[in-house]
Design goal:
alpha/beta; Purple Acid Phosphatase, chain A, domain 2; 3-stranded parallel sheet
Length: 281
């Protein structure tokens, strides 16, 4: 069976599976999402598919485009992208399903990933609402978090060896492909104590991909260029909250728009390409 035979593609049209009506939209700004959720299409849907920043997932700090409680009551299920965490949870009348990312897109994400299988009634006249949702864990690269800020050196090394052994055992037990057997290891340390980095590097060798998170920074210039690439989601949220203070939305709308898009996006590079395409189209 080819991909085209097993996948239903929809852009601007809704479709039905059994008794359920499906509808959805690509990413919208807050105004566009509000209009879509009041559209006839949304008000006829049982299942809505979106890719948005939602208040209940990300909070006010991330400038969400909408809330689950904005969704019409006829919608029973929301399948949503953007949030990189696997969640299936009830919010009032609504069951929200966030598959999350299929692999680690950022060192700050949870290492455990899932996909969801949904089964729907085949009979168009079946109004029982019997929908089955089953989570299927994905085999993923392991992640080791080491905090050396307030830990003794001996404990740091012990935690590293324990984490590496657990990652190796997981890879062997589940037969991970060679490309993802090596775990990620993030070391949080006090910036002025650079010696711990050298010791950890020597201990780990080529057994893990290293990420570094120095704390109590004086300025970004104090970091080595190779360390500035790893910005956590919570740090991006903090920058997003300060954006209006430093960039006037009225005077510099393009700059503000681009900065907002990059800070909100789980994949800034992809968001940049999309933003550029929008500006020249």
């Amino acid at each position: 069976m080819s991909l085209d035979e097993s996948v239903i593609w929809f852009r601007d049209e809704s479709f039905s599976l059994g008794p359920l009506q499906f509808a959805g939209c690509d990413f919208q700004d807050a105004e566009g999402l509000a209009l879509y959720l009041q559209s006839d299409e949304a008000k006829k849907a049982d299942v809505l598919v979106c890719h948005q920043v939602w208040l209940e997932f990300m909070g006010e700090e991330c400038k969400p485009q909408g809330s689950f409680y904005d969704i019409p009551e006829n919608v029973k299920y929301l399948i949503t992208g953007d949030y990189h965490e696997s969640i299936c949870q009830k919010y009032g009348h609504l069951t929200v399903i966030s598959p999350g990312s299929t692999h680690l897109r950022s060192i700050s994400e949870t290492q455990d990933k899932n996909v969801y299988f949904m089964s729907f009634p085949d009979d168009p006249n079946d109004d029982s609402g019997a929908v089955s949702i089953v989570a299927q864990p994905l085999l993923t690269r392991r992640k080791i978090e080491i905090n050396a800020v307030a830990a003794k050196e001996h404990d740091v090394f012990t935690h590293i060896e324990t984490g590496l052994a657990a990652a190796a055992s997981y890879a062997e037990t589940y037969g991970l492909p060679e490309d993802i057997r090596k775990p990620l290891l993030r070391l949080t340390y006090i910036q002025s104590e650079n010696d711990v980095v050298n010791k950890v590097d020597k201990l780990v060798g080529d057994r893990a991909h290293m990420f570094y998170k120095p704390v109590k920074l004086a300025s970004p210039e104090d970091l080595l260029p190779s360390l500035t690439k790893h910005i956590d989601a919570e740090e991006r949220v903090g920058m997003l909250g300060c954006l209006d203070t430093y960039v006037d939305k009225e005077k510099k709308p393009l700059t503000h728009s681009l900065a907002t898009r990059l800070l909100q996006a789980p994949d800034p590079e992809q968001a940049l390409h999309k933003w550029i395409k929008e500006q020249i189209s």
